[in-house]
Amino acid sequence: MSDKSNQKKDAEVNDISELDHNAQVLVRREKLNKLRKKAEQEGTTAFPNDFKREDYAKDLLGKFSNISKEELDPQNIKVSLAGRTMTRRIMGKAAFMHLQDASGKIQIYIKSNDIGSELFEEIKHWDIGDILGVEGTLFKTKTDELTINVSKIRLLTKALRPLPDKYHGLSDQEAKYRQRYVDLIINESSKRVFNIRSKTVQAIREYLNNSNFVEVETPMMHIIPGGAVAKPFITHHNALDMELFLRIAPELYLKRLVVGGIENVYEINRNFRNEGLSTRHNPEFTMLEFYQAYADYNDAMDHVENLIRYTCEKVLGTLQVEYQGEKIDFSKPFEKLTVVEAIVKYGNNITADDLSTREKALKVAKSLGLELDDATHGLGRIQTEIFEEVAEHKLMQPTFVTQFATEVSPLARKSDENPDYTDRAEFFCTGRELANMFSELNDAEDQAERFKAQVEKKDSGDDEAMHYDADYINALEYGLPPTAGCGIGIDRLVMLLADQPSIKDVILFPHMRRK
What we know:
- By secondary structure, the protein is an alpha+beta fold.
- It has two domains: 3-163, CATH 2.40.50.140; 199-347 and 391-506, BirA Bifunctional Protein, domain 2.
- Helices cover 36% and strands 23% of the residues.
- It has helices spanning 3-14, 21-42, 57-64, 69-72, 112-115, 117-123, 173-178, 180-186, 188-210, 251-259, 297-316, 339-346, 358-367, 379-390, 444-459, 470-477, 490-497, and strands at 78-91, 94-101, 104-111, 131-140, 146-157, 214-215, 221-222, 234-237, 242-246, 264-272, 284-293, 320-323, 326-329, 335-338, 399-402, 424-429, 432-439, 483-489.
- Helix 13 (358-367) runs parallel beside helix 14.
- The protein is elongated, with a radius of gyration of 30 Å.
- The relative contact order is 0.09.
- Mean pLDDT is 92; it is low at 1-18.
């Protein structure tokens, strides 16, 4: 058979783009079966695990891309690299491919004369997506592309499923979330997002460690759900025959540690809340919580401002961040507004007097279409509901909102000036809450009364109300120093830094409705 006939036959074998996905898988499984039989005859394996790479694509490109062909050739630079086949072009007795490793892509050049005609014939039947190990020498092509001239090549892993079309990629959002492994192979932008996430967590740790905080780990299964107002996930411990709750927040355990003398403490933690899914909510999410003894919520605000600036500089190298077309400026002092001031500033024609009594505030709330329980909503809670309706989504630039009502802040210290409100602030940016901080309630008797009030709400049908935590009260009775506490939503912070519209875009494996 002539070379042209061979080439035509190879093209027919490998050009399966018109076949449906299942048919492509079938063809690849047939190829794997042949590989297994060949390996069995030779006493080897179809999935070898003894290739040792020494080089990465990004390092090679960074070091040698700017060297001319004339300078590069005499150096005879030997390299060893492994990666996934992303492109392939067979041209008679030579082939070009691009291999992709964790750092990037690099071109390889394979000649039949260099590796042997028998192996080259096998290579013609390999597929895009296969994982290869290669050894060779660096050179520049006529188009000045850095390339590995292959002297040795091995198929390390046979890919049984074809990658999405290289021109369209994995464009379906749901498919990206459900098959993140394919998304990461195809979409460089997704890799960038999760590199930003990793760097963000690293920067947060650096800031807190440099500020003399101690990182700890606290339980994720609780006997009593607490630390935040939310509906918990419930599980069962068989050996102890007892009901347990997945962690809503680590707050009460971290404050127990402050009682115990770990005065500056933090945890980067996974929390679980049995709530709905949205662009801002995932039932499993990541939070930073930190607590500082002998400090108040003003100190916590200072830490949040400094931490976010530090993180922006470390991750992006700038304090000017663009989010969904909006320029966010972290270089200026963050604005501070009370809940009422924010409503007056962003609510249409709502005045401070309109919010001054429960009856007036309830009238405003009803005019906005808010459905409130007249019997259980006090003035502070009504103000909070109005704020969330008219102001929260308009807080695009970095803003601290203060003076939250005691009835919506069961763990925060009451204000000395007005006990109806607490020494609490929330940090908003891009129209969403990113952090919550307050001066901690360290009066054991006051905390016990607030727990009792929460229990009454739970008995009245509020699924999100907190339980009475007797052991936490016991801890407070040993004495909690004046303490500032803060929680920062890491997922939402990454959304901002990576310019992503949905929390699903910054969680590797977000929760999805079952197919």
